[in-house]
Amino acid sequence: MTTRIEPASAGSRAFQLHFSVGGVASFIKQGDISARISHQTTAMEGIATHQALQKQRESGCLRESGYEREKTVKTCCRIKNHELLISGRADGFCPGSNDSLPWVEEIKTTRLPQVAIPIGIRQQHLNQLRIYAYLICLDESLDKIELRLTYAHPDTLETEVYQETMSQGSLKTHFTKLVEPILQWFEQRTDWLAMRNESLNSLRFPFGEFRPYQRDIAAAIYRNVATEGRLFLQAPTGLGKSMASLYSTLKSLPETQAEKIFYLSAKTAGQASAQEALIRIQSEEPALRSLSITAKRKICFNPEMPCDPTWCQFAEGYYDRLPAALDRVVKSRGHWSKARVEALAREFSLCPFELSLDAAREMDAIVGDYNYFFDPRVRLKRFFDEEQKGHYPILLDEAHNLVDRARDMFSAEIGEATLLPAMQETKTQHKGLYTAFKRIARALTHLGQVSMNSGPEQLLNVIDLEPLVNAITGLLTAMDATAGELPLPETVMKSFFDLHRFHQTYEQLDEDYGCLLSQGDGTRVVKLNCLHPGRRLKKIYPLASSLTAFSATLSPKMYFQEMLGVDEHARWLKSPSPFDARHQATLIVDFIPTHYSARVGSASSLVSLIDQMITLSPGNYLVFFPSYEYLQIVAEQYRSAHPQRPLAVQAPGMGPEAIEGFLAQFQENSVCLGFAVMGGQFSEGIDLQGQRLKGLMVVTLGLAPTSAAQDALAQRLVSNGQSPTTLENDVSLRRSGYDFAYRYPALQKVVQTAGRVIRGPEDKGVVILIDARFKESRYIENFPEHWRPEVVKSAMIFEEKLKEFWS
Ligand code: SF4
């Protein structure tokens, strides 16, 4: 469903509503949630199958008959004082001839036989086809039309076709029946929106006063949303970006008439702070409803079970119980947190995840992960329809994270760790699948043996992957034999999904990818690694009406412009820091060597420096290292030098409780030292205000270790074919592959980490950078403008500088 609500005419209370044909067809659902159909194919497979069949139709005997693929249909129905705009594209239309009726076709890609497709889903397909047929009848003045619902197998292109002939009159009856509930919903929704917009007009900023510069960024965001632009905003941490962006975008709704807004963040902490801001905004009780969408794995009531009515009681009859729960949502105000969604789901015995997605249609603001917009596999298609221009403003929190997150979304991998258990599970009961899994495992082993002497990780040629991909195709075909059976064990399905994703990604490989084989810890993994996500992201931005991306670190601009695929029409804005620059001392220590071979030897000097830092102004400090290995070397030295002093140390894979325990040691009046790793849980998204953090040290640049993937990215970005090593030494070549692959990502981590120190106007603290390379202009010129870095060349000067700062 895609909606955009606009005044039909000035001063009128009538609204226009845009709906996709698919949205109309699936508005009312009945029965169970069943994942069986979605296990079988992906959207990309669907596109390929559609195109293949349409090509067949065009090149066959239909060539001369006026066959039209992707026939656009559009209509505006005036019903009950509202304008309902419906549009979509039928997969194929043939105008017919003297001895044959015109026909319209809807193609659905599936590995299931028609009889195994759940009845509710088949009904939706038929509804969709009937809407196309009706709109074509209106357009072409047809009395009668033949309808063809074609189920096509993605691998063989074999089809099963359901056919019926209908008159325009009976199609109209169907259409009216489908549209009526939408109009009823729309009527109550527009009443709510009118009330909401009125109350937003008088909504005041919840903190009374804006912080310095916060008003400016709020105004810039408002303008960007109102003009449907793209804005990349760099503003320091602690400025209140979440609140400013949410408040200004909500305030823009009466002007833009957008139905709802989306706030997306890569991290749970970012989503939590947006939720907090929304709750704060709603403390004045405006007519507003918002929702946090929690990931399925975190909110599922039956985590071990497949989403199938046979296994999960919350899936069985879900759509029959849903309307009563939605009625409760419609009558509500305020924020729907995870706990509130769970409570409602329990009360009505509904799947909490699906409930949150269905409740989203009643919301004015939605908080969730990047995935729901960017990931083609989990995008909320009900709101972001690829066939139409986007209708919703998107706010993108901590946008620097999008580079890595997008890489993950567009990449795929398969490894022995999931393949081998799937083989075991299928050995006795599913011989066909077992044989197919075994072929894949053999192809993987062969790939590993051929490449055995080339190190733990290496780049592969696409052609090397052919036997492996053929084996995967065999598995996908073997899955057909299980179609319609009860769901397979979770391990098998997990492996199947990985293989499926791999197969689809393989079909889209281009120069933005690197194919990597790693066999470091004894198990082989092949990864189709999207090194450069820019071109793919660029295609996704138009699915939003406006995009406002913000972060404390969007420098250097050319790096993010390239990696995020930002076009020249986007605006870039840098906000000054609202905090007094004199409140942060930034010292670059250039006398302690930190390169790999010097780390053990220089650890004692580092421990002395840490001690100096704490002694000169006792309080809470964090020291960040580029790796756990380095952290342990210094931690051991520190403990033996100061056995009586407490030391909080980050460990790999800390859960929420351990993280909370670590942070709880940093209190207003405590004296605590913590060791952590850069890029980990404590270098972003933590908020230790005031005396809870007096300073931090960043030990070395944190350049990623040299890897085949990063080298491939460096090469991908280098137009003149120079090697990364050559480029590393070529200071004048700013836009070098090496910078993009290694230096800029490291720099971004340093700036993010340092941003933990100053969180509010009263905060005062030190940022100590330990590495002589920090003083080079290529780093300094990309530091935030409010930093005033000073180079210290000895422990004595270090002490002087700190004394001066704290005095
Ligand atoms: S509760 Fe869990 S298993 Fe059941 S339908 Fe929802 S997500 Fe699937």
Protein architecture, described:
Mean pLDDT is 87; it is low at 1-13. It is built from 28 helices and 26 strands. The relative contact order is 0.09. Helix 16 (431-450) runs antiparallel to helix 17. Strand 6 and strand 7 form a beta hairpin. It is of the alpha/beta class and 807 residues long. The chain folds into four domains: 5-182, Lambda Exonuclease, Chain A, CATH 3.90.320; 211-409 and 534-574, Rossmann fold; 413-530, Fumarase C, Chain B, domain 1 (Orthogonal Bundle), CATH 1.10.275.40; 581-806, Rossmann fold. The chain has an eight-stranded parallel beta sheet with strand order 11-10-12-9-13-18-8-19. Iron/sulfur cluster binds at residues 33, 296, 300-302, 305, 307, 312, 314-315, 351, 353.
Keywords:
globular; 807 residues; binds iron/sulfur cluster; 4 domains; Rossmann fold; alpha/beta; Fumarase C, Chain B, domain 1
